[in-house]
């Protein structure tokens, strides 16, 4: 049996925003899409990753407002995986760097994002995290 690949577990078609969009716009997009992370991209490719927590900790906690550019909240030059990487590489990357989400990039372009929840659903769907990750939102 062959090893499972990142492409088999990743979320495809990640939501992407420009670095100059405001955190207010991005927060509304996250709410509409029911997601907790978006990729920040420009003409050069993926320049960052921003989570709902990043907006709170890096903008709101420092008295920044909704007009703050998302680039202020984003993790610049995030780690990346390739679709053909084994799932074990995603697990080790997340463990080694204490991150919950990693962009998936092919030929310089973001093609997906793999999250801790994606891995839990695939590897241990009966675990608490796997069950929570696959549950329908209640809000």
Largest sheet: 4 strands, mixed
State the shape. Answer: globular
Q: Enumerate the spans where pLDDT stays under 50 for 5 or more consecutive residues.
A: 127-135
The oligomeric status of these chains comes to: single chain
Count of helical stretches: 7
Strand order of the largest sheet: 2-3-4-5
Strand content: 15-25%
Helix content: 25-40%
Helix-strand makeup class: alpha+beta
Please report the distance between the alpha carbons of the first and last residues: 40 Å
How many E-type strands? 7
Order of helices and strands: HEEHEEHHEHEEHH
Radius of gyration: 15 Å
Mean pLDDT: 87
Explain what the structure shows:
The chain has 139 residues and is α+β, with helices and mostly antiparallel strands. Helices cover 37% and strands 23% of the residues. The protein contains 7 helices and 7 strands, in the order H-E-E-H-E-E-H-H-E-H-E-E-H-H. The strands form 2 sheets. It has a 4-stranded mixed beta sheet with strand order 2-3-4-5. Strands 1-7-6 form a 3-stranded antiparallel beta sheet. Strand 3 and strand 4 (45-51) form a beta hairpin. The chain is globular. Residues 127-135 have low confidence and may be disordered.
Features of the shown structure:
single chain, 139 residues, alpha+beta, four-stranded mixed sheet, three-stranded antiparallel sheet, 7 strands, 37% helix, globular
Question: Quick recap of the structure?
Answer:
By secondary structure, the protein is an alpha+beta fold. Helices cover 37% and strands 23% of the residues. Strand 3 and strand 4 (45-51) form a beta hairpin.
């Amino acid at each position: 049996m062959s090893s499972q690949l990142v492409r088999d577990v990743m979320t495809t078609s990640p939501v992407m925003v420009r670095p100059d969009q405001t955190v207010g716009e991005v927060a509304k997009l996250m709410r509409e899409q029911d997601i907790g992370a978006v990729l920040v991209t420009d003409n050069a490719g993926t320049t960052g990753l921003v989570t709902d927590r990043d907006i709170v900790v890096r903008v709101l906690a420092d008295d920044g407002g909704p007009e703050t550019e998302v680039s202020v909240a984003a993790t610049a030059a995030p780690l990346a995986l390739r679709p053909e990487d084994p799932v074990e590489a995603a697990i080790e990357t997340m463990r080694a760097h204490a991150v919950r989400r990693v962009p998936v990039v092919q030929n310089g372009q973001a093609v997906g994002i793999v999250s801790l929840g994606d891995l839990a659903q695939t590897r241990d769907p009966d675990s608490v995290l796997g069950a929570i990750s696959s549950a329908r939102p209640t809000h």
